[in-house]
Amino acid sequence: MSDENRITNIQVVGIGGQGVMTASEVLSQAARSLGFDVKKTEVAGMAQRGGVVSSHVRFGKRVFSPAIPQGETDILVAFEPAEGMRWLTEVNEGGVAMVNTLRQKPPVVNIGLFDYPDDPVKYMRDEGVKVYDFDAGAIAQGLGNPKMVNTVMLGAIADHLPFASDTLKSIIVERFRVKKPELADLNDRAFEAGRQAASDSEQAA
Amino acid sequence: MNQMTNPNKPAENTALLISGNEAVARGVWEAGVDVATAYPGTPSTEILEAVGTFDGIHANWSPNEKVALEVAAGASMAGSRAFSAMKHVGLNVAADALMTLTLTGVNGGLVIAVADDVGMSSSQNEQDSRYWGRFGHVPILEPSDSQDAYDMTKAAFEISEKFNVPVILRMTSRVCHVKTMVNVGERQKHEITGFNIDPSQWVMVPGNAKGRLVLQHQRDKVLKEYTETCELTVIEEGSDTSVGFITSGPAYMHVKEACPDMSVMKLGLTHPLPIEKIRAFAKTVDTVIIAEETEPLVELELTAAGIKVVGKDILPAFGELTPKLVRNALRKLNGETIEENKAPAQLFPRPPTMCSGCPHLGVYYTLSRFRKNAIFSGDIGCYTLGAGHPWNALDTCVCMGSAIGLGLGMDLARKASGEDGPDKDKAIFAIIGDSTFLHMGIQGLLDLVYNNGNVTVMLLDNSTTGMTGGQDNHSSGRDLRGNEAPKVNFTELVKALGMNPERIREVDPYEMPTLYRVIKEEIAVPEPSVIITNRPCVLIDTFESHRPLKVIDDECTGCGNCLNVGCPAIIVTKRSMETTEKGKEVEKAWVKIETQACTGCDLCPKTCGPNAIVPATLSDIANLGAN
Q1: Inter-chain residue contact A39 with B347, CB threshold 8 Å
Q2: DSSP state of B344
Q3: Mean pLDDT, residues A39-68 taken together
Q4: B217 and B278 together in one domain
Q5: CB–CB contact B322 A89 (8 Å)
Q6: CATH number of the domain enclosing A67
């Protein structure tokens, strides 16, 4: 496909309640503000109850199917490391995974019915995917608000998008200026911290 | 619903990025509809929520889909444009109304949006609502994205009035919950003409209905002519004519993605089918593939019309289509073998769970104490999750309101099996939530009382319709727009059904010892009982948290009892096998409580022998940020 017609496929995955859908909403709005055709879809049946959430954002000149065709995800944004592992086969060759290393064990693991994998990030690397990993939970807490994980994650992918990182950041910051102005500057910092974390992860790898 | 796209305030003439559900709501509002109704149900719920963001239109939650459709139909009879939204199984409930409304026809346009949960992300079955078209002699429109959903909603009202028929807008999850760009317009004024007394149209006794039946069949003929020229069906000629696709709904998008160069006929009005138009299209390509999700309706009808097509032989019989499945279908057609997809990582499942501090946790911990000698007839709502770990205290789930009827049937079978019957020592429970009880459970209870069934009904009143996201209902005290509304009194309602007042108990589900005692008392009595639990859902905005709890590490003995509450805020920190004094191997699990998630409901301390779970101190809470 020619560059002009190229579709960017971003898959955001995690657990109900983590802000996955907000993150994909913000990405969609950013792409839309640049005039792209955008489609966004998710499978999140009973997401509010701690289940698996997977949201697809696709943008380009013209997008047909709202769901990313199997194995064609360019950027996998995993809000939880085992969830990144769960969706890894969706990533295309040359694709990247941006992984929050903060683990969230479900009750079935807590009560001993299942094991949590030893090292999800290592698994992903061994499968040949370029992984950027960092503890977005700790970064958000360090800035004083653990709910900012999704802003940190968006900051982390900002330099991997086919548009300027400021486009994405200004959408987020504006969103807060309208709804919760007292958190606008903090989210600006969370975004930059995420960007830095991804960059540091690349240096370390 | 998303807060960023306020459909009330579109930027001038710019496209909105909105979901299919929001697009339908926008179309409803613009079409000049005055009355819109629904019962919540995934994936349709957000349609009425979005309608409720517009001014100048009545939008309400009904207790079930049948009432919702009747209210909309009444508004239509009185000359208003009217709309009702429901999920696929909802139309089963409303079908009694639909199948006669198709005879009466309409006054103001009447449109029913029905959302099929293709792929079953949150439903008990998978149905193809397009069947209602043939069954009910009603037109079916099938949008494939939000723009279609908006356009077709408006067109549906025109078709409804032009042909004097209710119209079904058939959505699927992959339209409802997908956001795509939509160009919108302004609200039109629709004049309400008033009710016209005309028994030959509205009084469907046999004498009148026979006359309407003739009209219905005449209407079928007219609709067949109309569909041949309907602009909602389009043909896109491709450069590659080896294959032509006939498709509709979101399948169209997958076909375009997979085969951008092939000819495609996109059906908009899918019942009745434009047979002659399709026949002509089929002649322009070598092979016709029918790409339709779930049932082979189009495929069968075209085959019957003598048009040679390929469909379910190369495409799946259920579940969602994807571009890859379409590509694979073409390869199958060419005789190629399809390699298996690369297997994803072997990983624990992450089933949905109940929330931290959910009042149902107290109910299920207590019910699980009765597991060995009980049958738990269940129903549909968050409490269906009681079937899972660690409670395993829900044994059936069929349809809305079924818990009580199934429970009565089990009791009747038990009684018929005699004194040595297989279930003679078991307590039979029926577990049902407030919204489901009001939806279709009341009649079940009426029957249980009337037939003196020995069933203990657990009526879990959490003052909301929880599983669909916390919509208000007839027991929550608020309406769809959040305004104060009358609310049902469950105790009085149950009493009015003829229940012995002594067998109606109201219990705080967080008071587990009391709940346990009350259940024990009620299952000992061989007659119907109703135990109402009365604490609100933790997700509704009036819910108040208490001080969170913590585990004193030195006091925790690793017994793991608290894990049986099933609260996701309780986390295992260490696990090991130990040998007891009697030489028995037991698994120990030490825990902590995630302070941020804990609501301080005080359920888990009641399961803790050594009293190791205590309220967190203020400094524990203040230290959260540093964690």
Answers
A1: no
A2: P
A3: 86
A4: no
A5: no
A6: 3.40.920.10
Report if residue B617 sits inside a domain: yes
Residue B558 near chain A (CB below 8 Å): no
Write out pLDDT tens, residues B262-293.
999 999 999 999 999 999 999 999 999 999 99
Contacts with A67 (C-beta within 8 Å, 6 or more apart), sequence order = A41, A56, B174, B254, B320, B322, B323
Range of the domain at A65: 3-204
How close A141 gets to chain B, by Cα (Å)? 6
Type of residue found at A18? Q
B348 touches chain A (CB under 8 A): yes
Q: Which of B350, B539, B593 to mutate to test the interface with A (most CBs of A within 10 A)?
A: B350
Domain that holds residue B196: 16-229
Q: What angle do CA B451, B455, B458 make, to 5 degrees?
A: 125
User: Which ipTM was obtained for this model?
Assistant: 0.94
Residue B541 within any structural domain of the chain: no
Nearest residue to A7 (alpha-carbon basis) of A33, A43, A31: A31
The pTM (predicted TM-score) of the whole model is 0.95
Q: Using CA atoms, how far apart are residues B440 and B424, in angstroms rounded to an integer?
A: 28
Q: Are B627 and B591 in contact (CB under 8 A)?
A: no
CATH number of the structural domain spanning residue B190: 3.40.50.970
Tell me which H or E stretch contains B433: strand B427-433
Distance to chain B for A130, nearest Cα, Å = 17
Amino acid (one-letter) located at A196: Q
The answer, for B539 touching chain A at a CB cutoff of 8 Å, is yes
Residue with the two structure tokens 């723009």 = B147
Judge if B315 and B375 occupy the same domain. Answer: no
